Amino acid sequence: MKILAFVSLFACIALSFPLFDFAPDWPFNAFSLLHGNGHQDRLLKLGPDEYRLASEQEKLNLKRANKRFIDMTEQISIDVAVEQGLVAKPSHSLWQKLFFIGSKQIDTLKKPIPVYNYPKKTQYSSEVKNLYNSIDIDGVRDNLSNFTSFYTRYYKTESGAESAAWLFDQLSNLIAPFKEIKIEKIHHKGWDQFSIIVSIPGEVKDKVVVGAHQDSANLILPNIMRAPGADDDGSGTVTTLESLRIILEAYRTGTYKPHNTLEFHWYSAEEGGLLGSIDVYSRYASAKEVVVGMLQQDMTGYTQGSIDAGVEPHFGLIEDYTSVELNSFIKLIIETYNSIPYHSSECGYACSDHASALENGYPSSFLIESEMKYSNKYIHSVMDTIDRIDFEHVREHVKLTVAFAYELSLAKKLH
Ligand SMILES: *[C@@H]1O[C@H](CO)[C@@H](O)[C@H](O)[C@H]1NC(C)=O
Ligand SMILES: *[C@@H]1O[C@H](CO)[C@@H](O)[C@H](O)[C@H]1NC(C)=O
Ligand SMILES: [Zn+2]
């Protein structure tokens, strides 16, 4: 009897999949055959010159296969993509689902990345190191505990919107004493979870940005399964939150006031193909905003993979599809301020939100918890939980973030 009830519950869930905008591969292959793959109405960028059309189901399958992409549907309409020869005309026939390498015209979409003169020496090490005494790891843990208690932070869910609202409240309280510091909800077209930007105005409008993504995803069934997302990217979210809190301590006492405008970003919908960040940086590019450097941190708390391999805990500095010059500056920061080293690593194209900055002509870097091969294997599942987080490692990322933000926001003559 119980088994029968269970089976019929399962069948009900299966039949209700058209309500969600995907049909899962497993264990319902037959089902997705019946319903087809849906419309290929998304334009994905999978490499510097690789575009393709995909359905929501195909996007999910790419994610499951660990293929990274930027979903550019809101930036380049499918009509324009066809016109420019980036993709073939959409059709339901199989052969047209294959990749199409674009024509020369793709170059017109590429924005050049300016090179800035980042500092070759650090200047504020006593000020910054003093601030490290204020890092409150218990507070970081409490905030991550709260953030991971949302059932999922998947960008299309109600709890995903609620988690953004919770984060917004924490940030609003934090900046409340400073009327010149701005907080903004960036609403996106097509889903409710907003991105958040906190901005400390500098003497000039050039921006220094540190970012993380707030959404999580369980890649088996993102709309209905739990995704605590403790490491991915709850850890980067609270790293960035704590770094802002520390910077504000210096700001409050008047010992620190940025020259460049310093921004803290928490992106929505990274797991949907960098949807939130590509929206943010496309708006910045349209408004001719200048971003002199952007640092993304996605996963800052897992060291067990390194420990199991007999390797010392370290940062993973991603050196493909990132700014060589900004990476050099980050190496200088790590050597000056951290008690762990970095190891160079690669993650392929568009593996986190820094790719959205780069796509829009802004130099960006990506620092992760370790080399990719030792990074957290439990992400995108119910097992990405807080008990696997090494908060001393998170502390190192906070130290790095505070130093990066402090030194680069005070740097002049970058142009
Ligand atoms: C969470 O973070 C905010 C902002 O940094 C901080 O004010 C608050 O004390 C933290 N919460 C806890 C429970 O520590
Ligand atoms: C999360 O924080 C909110 C308010 O900031 C609080 O009411 C709630 O009890 C917290 N939840 C958990 C699980 O810590
Ligand atoms: Zn992530």
From TrEMBL:
This is Peptide hydrolase. Residues 196-403 form the Peptidase M28 domain. It holds the Pfam family Peptidase_M28. InterPro entries: M28_fam (IPR045175), Peptidase_M28 (IPR007484). CDD domains: M28_AAP (cd03879). GO terms for biological process: proteolysis. Its EC number is 3.4.-.-. Keywords: Aminopeptidase, Hydrolase, Metal-binding, Protease, Signal, Zinc. GO terms for molecular function: aminopeptidase activity; metal ion binding; metalloexopeptidase activity. Belongs to the peptidase M28 family. M28E subfamily. Residues 1-16 form the signal peptide. Its cofactor is Zn(2+). It comes from Candida theae.
